[in-house]
TrEMBL record:
Identification of the protein by name: Trans-sulfuration enzyme family protein
Regions that span the bilayer: none
Keywords: Pyridoxal phosphate
Presence of keyword tRNA-binding: no
Lineage: superkingdom: Bacteria
Lineage: Bacteria, Bacillati, Actinomycetota, Actinomycetes, Streptosporangiales
InterPro entries for the chain: Cys/Met-Metab_PyrdxlP-dep_enz, PyrdxlP-dep_Trfase, PyrdxlP-dep_Trfase_major, PyrdxlP-dep_Trfase_small
Cofactor(s) demanded: pyridoxal 5'-phosphate
Similarity annotation: Belongs to the trans-sulfuration enzymes family.
């Protein structure tokens, strides 16, 4: 099925919509039944039947169906946040005494959650690349978790190779695909078992919602929906689901624009004398550009670059001089944002993650590329050029 059709029209012409151009938002917290027997039967399938908002809701269900179709998944489950999806997914796959294997750099709070699980007897190990997997796996390893491109470093892994290795070892592979969106990369088609997205980023696209989703086989999604989803209470609201649906309608158009502007800005920085290196997998200079061309259909506009200075005051001054780029966390919205991780995370965490002091993260929005480049050029005037 065509991705553009899925984003714009899938499920929106059904009778329950009553011809409304915007699918109705079901605000009710519960649904009634004609008989006690009907309610008892519905509760058995509360992940699919409309019983109580905590289980599912018609508006949320439509968003889930669209996201599942985009990822070529049997099912998807939406959560009230990206971390809601991540924590529920990992929890569903492990028990006390199990081990999680992490490949490459991943979202900071995901690592924090894995550390949190240690008090329940679940351990984890980080490995830098594929060569370290064989020596890091244990008899109690159950999950392989990774991102591609990786968090902050924007390095790629061969997704099909990683998924095949995990499958051969009897592990469930879980990948965070937020950076690419389902339009530019479809990990499930390359053998990954479960895919996670923060819907707060590109899918929502307007910095007005917080949400998450996990997609995969019914066999893996249904236990999450029946247990962790309900017990952890990270239910997505129908209003946020409606924002997801509206965000999906324009996702193909927005991602094309993000890609164009992001590459233009990255190319400018790549040639600037005050920039040490640009970490954007769409650039010819990126070490994984060949792999990107094989497993990705496009590039989003979040990337990092390293200033020629590792002086924290210089980095902070650079951010402060920017006028169009706004200083903030998160990314993927219509507005362009900037952050310097070394200025906001603990030194021990920064060193462990290998984040250079001079690393700056950009989220290139939908403003004109030349306006963004001019903003960066003026701010870079205060940075000492590389020797």
């Amino acid at each position: 099925m065509n991705d553009d059709w899925i984003c714009g029209r899938l499920g929106e012409d059904e009778p329950w919509a009553l011809g409304a151009v915007n699918p109705p938002i079901f605000e009710n917290s519960l649904f009634t039944f004609e008989t006690a027997a009907e309610l008892a039967e519905a509760i058995k399938d509360e992940d699919e039947r409309y019983v109580y908002w905590r289980g599912t809701n018609p508006t949320v269900d439509l968003a889930q169906r669209k996201l599942a179709a985009l990822e070529r998944a049997e099912r998807a489950k939406c959560f009230g946040s990206g971390m809601g999806a991540i924590s529920a997914t990992i929890s569903s796959l492990v028990s006390a005494g199990d081990h999680v294997l992490v490949l490459g750099s991943i979202y900071g709070p995901t690592t924090q959650f894995l550390r949190y699980l240690e008090k329940f007897g679940v351990t984890h190990t980080h490995v830098g690349d594929l060569t370290g997997l064989d020596s890091a796996i244990r008899s109690n390893t159950r999950v392989l978790y990774f991102e591609s491109p990786s968090y902050m470093s924007y390095r790629l892994v061969d997704i099909a190779e990683v998924a095949a290795w995990a499958s051969g070892q009897g592990l469930v592979s879980v990948m965070d695909n937020t950076w690419s969106t389902p339009l530019f990369q479809k990990p499930l088609t390359m053998g990954v078992d479960l895919v996670i997205h923060s819907l707060s980023k590109y899918v929502g696209g307007h910095s007005d919602l917080v949400g998450g989703v996990v997609a995969g086989s019914t066999e893996l999604i249904r236990p999450i929906a029946l247990t962790e989803y309900q017990l952890y209470g990270a239910a997505m609201s129908p209003h946020d689901a409606a924002k997801v649906i509206k965000g999906l309608r324009t996702l193909p158009v927005r991602m094309a624009a993000h890609q164009e502007r992001g590459l233009a800005v990255a190319a400018f920085l790549d040639a600037h004398e005050a920039v040490r290196v640009v970490h954007h997998p769409g650039l010819a200079s990126h070490p994984d550009r060949g792999l990107a061309s094989r497993q990705m259909a496009g590039f989003s506009s979040v990337f990092g670059f390293e200033l020629g200075s590792d002086d924290r005051q210089v980095v902070a001054a650079f951010l402060d001089r920017l006028k169009v780029f706004r200083i903030a966390v998160s990314w993927g919205g219509f507005e362009s944002l900037v952050a310097a991780p070394a200025l906001t995370i603990e030194e021990s965490v920064r060193a462990t993650m290998g984040v250079p002091v001079g690393l700056v993260r950009l989220s290139v929005g939908l403003e004109p590329a030349d306006t963004l480049i001019e903003d960066l050029a003026l701010a870079l005037e205060g940075v000492v050029p590389l020797a």
